[in-house]
Design a protein that fits this description.
The chain is an alpha/beta fold and 300 residues long. Helices cover 46% and strands 14% of the residues. The protein has one domain: TIM Barrel, CATH 3.20.20.140. Strands 1, 2, 3, 4, 5, 6, 7, 8 and 9 form a nine-stranded parallel beta sheet that branches. Strand 7, helix 9 and strand 8 form a beta-alpha-beta unit. It is globular, with a radius of gyration of 18 Å.
């Protein structure tokens, strides 16, 4: 069996990485000076994770420099894992810390792309939380999309269909500009919801999507349309979406022909890099070494 260092050495993509939470806990702790009690640990779903965010991480991010530090830690930890392509999500809400100065916000992101261009292909992604101020989203988004800085968009938050029509215009505008379209669905929601999101937003990729394994017709739908699912096995286990790594449906998705990558999601919470997750999947015999090679190549 190939060791962990083999997987670290291979070119790979992380297409599911929230850059404000994309660093190891030890990296974050040395910067923040704010320990999170009993951490890292298993969590009781998304509500538990959001409670930690509201109590500890969000209050620590107050300034423009804080945003820059968080992104920088995340990019460096991705480089250390041998990630060659990073589609890192930058939340639109961070514009608040830049006093709503769009030019300064975009300059910050462009500087990261330039700073690390010889170490990693950084493809910035604009992230939208469903619960964020929709007036600000409406005000800021057109200029951000037209800037050419963002190569993809991602919608996240509660995996429910209620209210998704409020974001339809963003996905239509992104499509016209040739920007890749992603949305979070199918970690805790069912297969039907995944198909609904893909069709409604005309998605290119799904963030998570493991619920598709519940329905062979949805797996076939994703495979036929070549909808890539950026799956985060460690996130799924830690948050309780699946019971264990051995029970993870990633093998079923691969065997059905669904394009799949492995992402870190929030490395701060889940503490497993792309390489370690792939290694663990092979070690537990959840997937084969041949499957691991497919995971490495998909998305590149």
């Amino acid at each position: 069996m190939k060791d962990l260092q083999y997987y670290i050495a291979q070119p790979k993509i992380d297409a599911h990485n929230h850059l404000n939470l994309g660093m190891h806990y030890h990296s974050y702790l040395s910067w923040s000076g704010v320990p999170i009690p009993n951490f890292p640990r298993k969590m009781a779903g998304l509500d538990d994770m959001h409670d930690i965010i509201s109590r500890y991480t969000r209050p620590r991010c107050k300034t423009e420099d804080d945003v820059i530090s968080l992104i920088d830690m995340s990019v460096r930890d991705a480089i250390n894992d041998g990630v060659s392509v990073l589609e890192g999500s930058i939340d639109i809400g961070f514009l608040v810390h830049f006093h709503e100065n769009i030019d300064r916000f975009l300059e910050m992101i462009a500087n990261f792309v330039s700073k690390y261009q010889n170490q990693i292909d950084m493809r910035p992604e604009l992230g939208f939380g469903k619960t964020f101020d929709k007036k600000k989203i409406k005000k800021w988004t057109p200029a951000l999309l037209k800037s050419g800085i963002f190569k993809s968009i991602d919608l996240y938050g509660p995996e429910i269909e209620e209210g998704i029509e409020d974001f339809d215009w963003i996905f239509k505008d992104a499509g016209k500009l040739g920007i890749k379209k992603k949305a979070h669905v199918g970690e805790f929601s069912d297969a039907r919801s995944i198909r609904r999101f893909v069709e409604f937003f005309d998605l290119d990729e799904v963030q998570h999507g493991i619920g598709a394994a519940q329905d062979e017709s949805v797996l076939s739908f994703l495979a036929e349309r070549k909808i890539q699912c950026n799956v985060c096995p460690q996130s799924n286990v830690i948050l309780g979406a699946v019971e264990s790594l051995e029970a993870h449906p990633i093998k079923k998705m691969l065997d059905a022909g669904v394009p799949v990558t492995v992402g870190t999601d929030d490395l701060l919470f889940f503490d497993h890099t792309v390489s370690r997750q792939i290694f663990n999947l092979v070690e537990t015999k959840t997937i084969t070494e041949a499957d691991a090679e497919t995971l490495l190549k998909t998305g590149l």
